[in-house]
Amino acid sequence: MRRLAHISDLHFGRADMAVAEALVDELNSMAPDLIVASGDFTQGARSREFRQAAAFLKRLAAPVLAVVGNHDITPYHLLERFLDPYARFRRYIQPGIEPVWQDDELIVIGINTARRMAPELNWSYGRISQGQMNGVERILAAAPASLYRIVVGHHPFLPPAWDEDARVVMRAKRAIAVFERAGVGLILSGHLHRGYSRFVKPEVVGEEVAGVKESSGATASRRLMVVQAGSAISTRLRGEPNAFNVITIARGRATVEPRLWNGAAWGPSAAGAQ
Length: 274
Ligand SMILES: [Fe+2]
Ligand SMILES: [Fe+2]
Known about the structure:
binds fe (ii) ion, alpha/beta, 12 strands, Purple Acid Phosphatase, chain A, domain 2, six-stranded mixed sheet
């Protein structure tokens, strides 16, 4: 059994520091095996924001696997943005931008979906390249078949059910097909500041609550689920409270339980709120 905390979109610079403080306590008391942080540590990739993020991470007792968000690439220093876009992330958050965490039950692969530029006006959208997909495929082909497989990226791979037009990472469909073939059980992301879980193939949802519990154990028939975390501590909220996910992996099955900030404490979401 493994327990993960999935936090996202901290946005230091626009973070509620009281909620941040409570999150440190909550994460340290739940003592997960791993904390997955799916990007947007800062608001504007400023050094002081990254220093706040680093101080926050330093206080967490559990290991952290992090990926870059679009807000973690500086929009103010264009030369740096083009020449060394992940320099601040590497310095303050984590040396590598595509980390892999593995033990004898679980493998978690981080992929970078944030880009320094794009052939369109808005550079905040995410992309995944064929090379990155091949890389995930290669790593998972070499991993023991018994490991539960998780991929983490900042940008969403499926939109929320109530907003099918929300933009997903470029090449999401192709990536999902590759991940399914490689036996991935969960894709964890953020960016939208909205929490939801969706199966890639909703037509085969079984007796369990759709989108909350994965219902298949074996790697071959594992059903891929996309899990989005809301914003853990930022004040940039989109109609939802601050939130993060607690993910339990046991006997090849994943259970996702969102935890919401109620203004004074972290608590479970109301039944059916997902
Ligand atoms: Fe964000
Ligand atoms: Fe983002």
